[in-house]
Amino acid sequence: MTPTRASDPDTTPGLVEADSTPAQHSRHPRHVPHSERSPHSERTPHLQSTRVSRPGTGRPAFFRSSTWRAFGYHWVTLLLAPFGLAYAVTTVSLGASLLVTFVGLIVMAALVAGARSWGTLHRSLAAGLLDREIPAPVRFAPRPGFFGFLRSGLADGAGWRALSHMAVSFVTSVLSACLSITFLAAGLGCMTHWYWYQWLPPQEAGDGTWHRGSMIAPDVYVEGFWWQAAYVGVGLLLTFLIWPSLNNGLARLQASLAAGLLGPTAAQDRVRELEASRSSSVAGADARLAQIERDLHDGTQAQLVAIAMKLGDAKDRIAGTEAPAELQHLLDTAHGTAKDALEDLRGIARGIRPAVLNDGLDTALESLAATAPLPVYLSYRLPVRPSPAVEAIAYYCAAELVTNAVKHSGGSRISVLVLQEDSGLTLSVKDEGAGGAGSGTESAGTGLAGLAERVRTVDGTLRISSPDGGPTVVTVRLPLS
């Protein structure tokens, strides 16, 4: 690919690949600094299952929509239970029967990973019918390669817990649905017995008499006003008091079972809390660095520029006078010191967080390529803009790797590739040097070790490939946010 020269009147030109065009820059929305964001704009992930309150809770339980949605939940889970049990039995039996042919491992790994969809279905049912929000477990991330998929599938704890839920929920779903339906039918039947008993077939008692009412004991039939009134009272008790409590309690039991087996474990919850805390810390640190860079640029740097201008003006004014040589030398020295301090401050500000990152990672990398002593070929293929903290880490990695290649590789060119892979950012820096940089960060010097540590703060990875004779390729993978 033929590189195009990036023009910068204040810097040494570098080489930038043609597909990194300014048109890409316009697609990136402006990021609002962390310090300017409203606290309501940050969303904390649900780490525990929650219930959503709905209106109408002041009415008797029988007349609440939540009670009838729970009743519907029992019916739906009753219909799904046989399919779940069949899936669980098929996974174990088919995988075990084919294990001797090695195909069983593939089948079992795929079915275990596929069991996660059962968890998704039941979490949706719990949220829609029971107002119980159950967070999803950690996303399934298979390792690369065929054997990596086997290991990931067979060791997927969320998949195995979903299979366990299929087996256990078959019993609980059938039991819950049968109990709820039975108690409701019994209550309604008792309340209306006075009406429909007349269509019952007649029964002969021991004394030879005939009766149509329900027989509740030998030769004891529900007939007459007081027996019918007692039956109505039992029906009212079952329908309006016992059944709603039983129905909703069994639904809560089902939801608790789903939360325990289909949601994240306590360890995963703790990991999510730590990840959220770390993400907040990283974003806060990046925002503070950006603020420091702005303060240096708008405050201290402006003051140094003013001092340098005033000293320069003083030099010009006394240039044609008979001022003492010591004074002229002092002004010259002070002016030079102010200019040096200004240059040092600009370098410090760029090291803290380059202002060019405000325009996007692609623009910052183009600026880096343009100022590099060696030709840098940049290919930027990232369709979305990462978070500011990730952008800063990616830029510092690229800058450090380009600097290392210039100093130590002995090559004549450097290639920088940025693209999106598996919902993450991949940065690859390649030089055509002598190689031998080592296969791990421990043997690659403190610079690369520091980069690896920085990358790990956002769950990224850094890999080095540097055989003797070259080329050296350092690959950094980062999340987009």
TrEMBL record:
Biased composition (Basic and acidic residues): 33-45
Span of domain Histidine kinase: 400-481
Annotated transmembrane regions: 70-89, 95-115, 170-196, 225-243
Known EC number: 2.7.13.3
Matches recorded under InterPro entries: HATPase_C_sf, HATPase_dom, His_kinase_dom, Put_sensor_dom, Sensor_HK_TwoCompSys, Sig_transdc_His_kin_sub3_dim/P
Classification via CDD domains: HATPase_UhpB-NarQ-NarX-like
KW Transit peptide (keyword) present: no
Domain of life: Bacteria
Keywords per UniProt: ATP-binding, Kinase, Membrane, Nucleotide-binding, Phosphoprotein, Transferase, Transmembrane, Transmembrane helix, Two-component regulatory system
Region (Disordered): 1-58
PANTHER family in the record: NITRATE/NITRITE SENSOR PROTEIN NARX-RELATED, NITRATE_NITRITE SENSOR PROTEIN NARQ
Protein name (record): histidine kinase
